[in-house]
Please model this.
Amino acid sequence: MAQSRRALLSYGATAALAATVAVPAALAAGPDAELIALCTEYVALDRAFVANSYAGADMFSTDPAWVALNDEGCAMVPRLHALEAEIGGCRARTPEGLRALVQVARHVVSSDADRGAVDLLEGGEVMWPVLESVLAILDAGRLA
Model:
């Protein structure tokens, strides 16, 4: 399916937004504030990367719009890796911090975490139900 120029440009806007996602004020000063900010940025950037990947299905195209889209996607990868390294060195101290870590883990295990357990990466069959269970417990307030 051909993408309109407007649709292609919207992916760029999504990527730019990912770098400026705000953390809720109530969490911004807590013990896991830095962790939550890193995780929030990671999830937003991963969503933009996945959207960019779906839009740029023809990676061998020489069309300037597709080339720009591919370059944009490639430009996101170093920041994703840097965030993974930073987050990997953190430990959650609050339920909110744990929720943020689990959200990141969902995006690491599944190449499209927002649509459910699709395109699971190696080991994802085991990890997906664990991650979903932890989120359910956190959302129910049973791990406070």
About this structure: Residues 1-20 have pLDDT under 50 and may be disordered. The longest helix spans residues 64-88. The chain has one domain: 5-139. Helices lie at 5-18, 25-28, 33-55, 64-88, 95-109, 124-139.
